[in-house]
Prior knowledge:
This protein has 9 helices and 10 strands. The chain has helices at 43-51, 73-79, 96-101, 113-119, 121-125, 136-148, 166-181, 193-199, 224-231, and strands at 5-14, 17-27, 32-36, 57-63, 66-67, 81-84, 154-158, 185-189, 202-207, 210-216. The strands form 2 sheets. Strands 6-7-8-3-9-10 form a 6-stranded mixed beta sheet, with helices on both faces. A 4-stranded antiparallel beta sheet has the order 2-1-4-5, with helices on one face. Strand 7, helix 7 (166-181) and strand 8 (185-189) form a beta-alpha-beta unit.
Amino acid sequence: MAALLDVSDLHAWYGESHILHGVNMHVQQGETICILGRNGMGKTTTLRTIMGILRKRKGRIGFDGRDLMRMSLHATARAGLGFVPEERGIFATLSVEENLLLPPKVADGGMSLDEIYDLFPNLRERRSSAGTKLSGGEQQMLAMARILRTGARCLLLDEPTEGLAPVIIQRIGEVLAELKKRGMTVVLVEQNFRFASKVADRFYLMDHGQMVAEFPVGELAANMAMLNEQLGV
């Protein structure tokens, strides 16, 4: 079966700094994959390059049979890719509901406001609150929910549990499980190894701008020695 997202020999630069050195990655429809690696290895750059935010790049990024390398950022979003950055990008002066309604729908199948509020009950309670009044966990929920309303089919999530309380991390895991039931494809960058092991189908290990290992969750125990060495977990 052809992958929904197929990345081949992907290179990327920040100015003159060569960050990605031939990244290869494939993701099937409905799959959740997690990119592991120490800080500074290129994980966030990989997501930004796939999305088209970082334009100094070469290689191949295929999504549902389309060549994303030839597309603008807004065309990539309309193709069905949604990016939730680590910094979340909440509009502080807008209410929760105004933040949710701001991004345009890119395709049919996006969640309604009621569906989003069922998935994130905290947001229903805070629907009239300004972004400045939200906790870090509520901001993360809002950043994810905003993309789910657009109809995106593949979610690129950068460090969604960073700095959050355990109860919020658990809720985000439950949301990802629900999205999987709905057929959503997720590419996750995550430092919380315990969290990632509960939600991912497969893992990629990144080192110095390359994928150096790939294995399914069923082989996690067999790869723990390598992960301990590479990640210091």
